[in-house]
Amino acid sequence: SCDYSQLEPRTVAALSKDPKLLEIFQAGRDLYVETGAVLGVTRQIAKIITLGVLYGMGGHRLFEQLVLAGCGTMSNPVYDEEACENLIRNWFNVYSGVRALVRVTVAEARQQNGWAFTDGGRQRFLPSLFLEGRGWPAGKLREEAERQTFNHLIQGTATERVKHAMLRVDGFAEVYPLLMIHDELVCETPEGAAEDNAAVVAALMAERFRGVDLKTTYTVGDTWGSLK
Length: 228
Hints:
Elements: E1 2-4, H1 7-16, H2 19-27, H3 31-39, H4 43-54, H5 59-68, H6 81-94, H7 96-111, E2 115-117, E3 123-125, H8 138-170, E4 176-181, E5 184-188, H9 194-205, E6 207-209, E7 212-214, E8 216-218
Antiparallel strand pairs: 1-5, 1-8, 2-3, 4-5, 6-7
Helix pairs in contact: 1-2, 1-7, 1-8, 3-4, 4-5, 5-6, 6-7, 7-8
């Protein structure tokens, strides 16, 4: 099993050129530890917030995710919805280059008649970008479409990197790719060569994308369940 390390955050760093994100990755520091220190939260919560932003979460969804992660209960949360909105807002204040990318991405989608694109040109139609009005339903649906526009760019582009990696791995005769699970490839290979071949696959998957290194790790096991 070979997978990418923090693929979506590295993708957003490559596309946004946010100086703080670039500095963290270039220096090999832990993104979630540094984000947590700035936001005043634990590494676990910083990871949930960061991935939530990139997945297009709003305050309500982040509130639910933090409760599921053990931050209180629905009736007595550690972070209520207003606090979650503030956490998202503060995250964008820290990584202001990402906020600028969101605005540009949404504006371009509106100029392109509601079509959002990945870096490789894959498209998604989001007509709710043109809804007018505030509150429910128009305002909420429009805000959701804006988040989905950015999410399509980041997750879609990250998926493209994995698919390009699959093509490179497919040319390696001793490895048979079985599954793609998010940013992970699970492969079969002869047992005696498993360790060496896994290292080769991890190297084939790694690349430098728009100035940011997409790093990989690997594990070897007799079954899928033993890989983690």
